[in-house]
Design goal:
It is a single chain. The protein is mainly α. It has a single domain, classed as de novo design (two linked rop proteins) (Up-down Bundle). The chain has five helices and no strands. The longest helix has 27 residues. The radius of gyration is 15 Å and the shape is elongated.
Length: about 100
């Protein structure tokens, strides 16, 4: 899939852009030696977009729904990791770091 195709599809664009933000945040976490949460967050956040993109080529309506539900579960997991970072006293708040990089 080309970048133009991603830009033309709102859900793909949002999930792709979100993945890029999380990659930057995880890079920041790695620089502060917060590797464990960084890896978990990176996997779940980028999986949202990957599953959404995969759903674009679903074999049936049921397959599409299944893939989007997987993306939704990954979004829930991502929200959990970001909330942990935001409420922890030893992790940089995700919102502030992500906001600085926009």
């Amino acid at each position: 899939m080309k970048k133009e195709e991603i830009e033309a599809n709102p859900i793909l664009k949002m999930t792709f852009d979100f993945s890029l933000l999380v990659i930057n945040y995880c890079d920041f976490l790695d620089s502060t030696k917060k590797y464990t949460i960084s890896r978990q967050l990176l996997k779940s956040a980028t999986s949202i977009g990957a599953n959404t993109m995969e759903a674009q080529n679903a074999e049936s309506k049921a397959d599409f729904i299944h893939k989007i539900k997987i993306a939704a579960k990954e979004a829930d997991e991502t929200q959990y990791w970001l909330l942990l970072c935001s409420l922890s006293t030893i992790y940089p708040e995700a919102y502030n770091v992500l906001r600085r990089r926009i």
